[in-house]
Design brief:
Elements lengths: L12 H8 L5 H13 L1 H15 L11 H14 L27 E3 L5 E2 L5 E4 L7 E7 L5 E7 L3 E3 L11 E9 L5 E3 L3 E5 L2
Parallel strand pairs: 2-9
Antiparallel strand pairs: 1-3, 3-6, 4-5, 4-7, 7-8, 7-9
Helix pairs in contact: 1-4, 2-3
Length: 195
């Protein structure tokens, strides 16, 4: 297992799997988090693997196969020839009516890869139409949900409580339940709270 170091190397598949499986020591975990804050490529890789794992049935945390499953998914992603295509901007849940146009929720603020202040932090996105209910989800780097909010507006203020902490990095996205019963989602965006 090769941990990222200060020479510019990237995380290998076993480290990503151990990180997402919470199988690292506190020192290794801190080192990986520091690398993820500085390396957009590794951060994208961890987000993509976490998103793939989130769509699969969850294994019990005590399962000895959870780490192997994460490593297998990462190995499959890395074994594909050519560059890994970007994650789709749209997720549909349920059947799509024939001929229906697909639309995605477009995120506005905060912008990706930026450092933002927690005080007064507002999440914003473009409207997906009339009579839409939105669900904002904020996760930690492991993919665990740290905060959600439901709204009919396109702006939600972050909580002032302990849900998010200064100096930490998070991912966020928005699901929209449309008036015709379809559900669409935004892309996943990252943010870092200022220390």
């Amino acid at each position: 297992m090769t941990l990222a170091d200060d020479t510019g190397t990237h995380l290998d598949a076993a480290v990503v799997a151990a990180y997402l499986d919470r199988a690292l020591s506190d020192a290794e975990h801190s080192r990986i988090q520091a690398h993820l804050v500085a390396c957009a490529e590794c951060r994208d890789e961890v987000a993509e693997v976490a998103q793939v794992l989130a769509t699969r049935p969850r294994l019990p945390r005590w399962s000895p196969y959870a780490g192997l499953a994460a490593a297998a998914v990462l190995a499959l992603l890395l074994a594909r020839p050519g560059p890994i295509p970007p994650a789709p901007d749209l997720t549909l849940r349920g059947p799509e009516p024939p001929g229906a146009g697909r639309q995605a929720v477009e995120l506005v603020a905060p912008a990706g890869e930026g450092i933002v202040a927690l005080h007064g932090l507002a999440f914003a996105w473009r409207s997906a139409g009339a009579d839409v209910t939105y669900r904002l989800v904020v996760t930690d780097l492991r993919g665990d949900t740290v905060w959600t909010a439901t709204a009919t507006d396109t702006v939600v203020l972050a909580p002032t409580g302990p849900a998010m902490r200064s100096g930490e990095s998070y991912f966020w996205y928005v699901d929209a339940l449309l008036s015709d019963g379809r559900s669409v989602a935004s892309a996943v965006r990252d943010l870092r709270i200022a220390p």
